[in-house]
Specification:
This protein is 27% helix and 29% strand. The protein is an alpha+beta fold. The strands form two sheets. Strands 1, 2, 3, 4, 5, 6 and 7 form a seven-stranded mixed sheet that branches.
């Protein structure tokens, strides 16, 4: 590779992954203790440096696959963070990515291997550096986009009840939603299909199960 820019300072570029899931009625974030200096032992997002042969998206996909063993999951860039002194180790610019997964699809063995924990977003500890800011920005973005994108289905199993769907919306938005108005709105969406299956685990009376029809949504 020809060194065209040798008169300029070299910078490090990293990826930080904000992995959100829904569990026990709460929006939760996957975090762990940092295993390198500086900041060893502090709570942190999971991330890595971008390799020379990777695009940003490819790097984020690689990091998420290493972390979860999952492919083709929701992934959206939140923003870039480049304050001069944000990392006491070196001059590092980080690009944060938001990912949404179904907690039950996540390999529990991988979680233990990486010593990661699901922590409620509204009960987060102090994270390394500017990671709390990244999470706050990601949640704000999610709250805006959920109004016009079918994002909540990434946090649910393939089949779900309307009560489960409402709980996801409430966890993301941070407040309760009127049940009657919510169900009226949902039933007007042709891409949310009633399956004919009944959930008798979460409802004593038995609740109808629905699913997200992506093909119908794309149309």
């Amino acid at each position: 590779m020809v060194d065209y820019y040798k008169e300029h300072a070299r910078l490090y570029v990293s990826i930080d992954c904000i992995v959100l899931g829904f569990d026990e009625g709460k929006l939760k974030l996957l975090i762990g203790h940092r295993k390198m200096d500086p900041g060893r032992g502090e709570w942190s997002l999971y991330g890595d440096f971008v390799n020379e042969d990777e695009s940003l998206d490819d790097s984020a996909s690689r990091v998420l696959y290493e972390l979860t063993g999952m492919k083709d999951i929701y992934l959206k860039q939140v923003g870039a963070y480049g304050e001069v002194n944000r990392d006491p180790g070196e001059r590092v610019i980080s690009v944060a990515y938001l990912s949404l997964i179904n907690v039950n699809d996540y390999d529990e063995e991988l979680r233990r291997q990486f010593d990661l924990h699901w922590v409620a977003v509204d009960q987060l500890p102090k994270l390394y550096g500017d990671h709390n800011e990244m999470v706050s920005n990601a949640v704000s973005m999610l709250r805006r986009r959920i109004a016009y994108e079918p994002l909540s289905f990434n946090l649910l199993p393939e089949m779900f009840t309307l009560t489960q769907l409402q709980r996801v919306y409430e966890a993301i938005l941070g407040h309760e939603i009127d049940k009657r108005n919510f169900r009226k709105r949902i039933k007007q969406m042709p891409f949310i299909e009633k399956t004919g299956s009944i959930d008798r685990k979460t409802s004593k009376r038995g609740a109808a199960q629905y699913r997200f029809n992506k093909e119908m949504y794309d149309l």
